[in-house]
Write a structure and sequence with these properties.
4-stranded antiparallel beta sheet, 8 strands, alpha+beta
């Protein structure tokens, strides 16, 4: 009986002593384990600080070695070392994460819409102001005439001064450079002229050109109508057709016109006729 009690006491004492020993040894073991863990953490941190992008940005520091241990692919630039050669510093491109804020600039839609609107507005205004519009050429009628006769050849010499109205409907300068005119009587050309007309017309403005055509009519019936005193009306019908050459925006254009006029061939001269002016 005493042997059993003593054995039980020794067992209790040994158990309590082991727990006390573990209690007293725990701080030492923690300290030793801390000493073993801290260097490993420092090594990992060293790996983190050694790897940086070309721009030395703190956001781009990534522990390549740690990533490689987790089964990921190493960086193709540094091959998982976290360092690049100094001589290749300006040649290699830094890797930026897809979720980086630098890849998501602010107000992108606003800038794109604004740029598209400005381009459309500029194009529309350019087309509106530079689109070619018509240049109106209208004969204004006869201004003055002078008539002469040759009884030997039964011919009539007729000098006419006519007026041509030109309207510029464009938003840019138009220049009239040359005028070609033909006068026909009974489908025969009796006179023609070509003249330079250095006329510059401002945008949305009008101008006038005075031109003279010397004609010679060789027809006995027309000569008798013009010289016969018993006839009260001495008018002959003339067909005038021509073309006006205009230039604008490094482009040349020919504008055709025609007109029919009755000319009094009895008198030696015809007074100026009132001119037709187009309203502005």
């Amino acid at each position: 009986m005493c042997f059993c009690v003593g054995h039980l006491v020794r067992t209790l004492l040994s158990t309590m002593g082991g727990k006390l020993a573990l209690f007293w040894k725990a701080p030492d073991q923690k300290e030793s384990e801390g000493k073993r863990i801290l260097p490993r953490q420092l090594d990992a941190e060293d790996d983190v600080t050694n790897y940086a992008s070309i721009n030395d940005s703190a956001m781009s520091r990534v522990p390549c070695a740690g990533i490689a241990r987790r089964g990921h692919v190493n960086c193709p630039t540094c091959q998982g070392t976290g360092r690049i050669p100094r001589e290749q510093e300006r040649q290699l491109v830094a890797l930026i994460p897809y979720g980086d804020q630098r890849l998501k600039p602010r107000r992108t839609k606003l800038y794109v819409c604004l740029a598209v609107t400005i381009c459309l507005l500029t194009t529309s205004l350019s087309l509106f102001f530079l689109f070619p519009r018509s240049i109106t050429v209208l004969p204004a009628g006869l201004n003055t005439t002078s008539v002469g006769f040759n009884a030997n050849t039964t011919s009539i010499y007729l000098n006419m001064t006519n007026v041509l109205n030109i309207t510029n409907n464009n938003f840019y300068l138009v220049s009239a450079v040359q005028l070609d005119v033909e006068v026909l009587h009974q489908s025969l050309v009796v006179g023609k002229t070509t003249m330079k007309t250095p006329l510059n017309m401002s945008p949305l403005q009008s101008g006038q050109i005075y031109y003279m055509v010397a004609s010679r009519i060789l027809d006995d019936n027309t000569y008798n109508i013009c010289t016969w005193t018993k006839v009260k009306v001495h008018n002959i019908l003339l067909h005038i057709q021509g073309s006006l050459t205009c230039t604008y925006l490094c482009h040349s254009e020919q504008l055709a016109f025609e007109d029919y006029q009755y000319v009094d061939c009895r008198g030696n001269a015809t007074l100026p006729h009132p001119l037709y002016h187009r309203p502005p």
